[in-house]
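Hey there, shall we discuss this one?
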Amino acid sequence: MEWSDLTEGAKAVLEQTRNIKNDKIQIVEFEVGFEQDPELAGDAEPISIQEEDYQSLKRFTKENEYGDKYHMARNKNIVKIILLEKDKIPDNLSDFPVFKEYKNDTVTE
């Protein structure tokens, strides 16, 4: 699956996982059903993450052609996604803070 095949909401999430700096793992957490307030989006298109975006992400993380490995975990409508380093989940994953959240009650940067 290629980048161009992703839905817009899926692209917004994956762009955040690619912000790896200083060998730190980036965890992005989002809520299926998230709708960004247009005022918070500024000049950009508001981010919307719906079930079709989740399905697009799920497919991309299994079939992407870029060699990156991801881990996704879903609990009800809350999903966490991380870009794995060295193809494995760290033993101390809970020690890593969430880098970006897309939830209906909060958006963190």
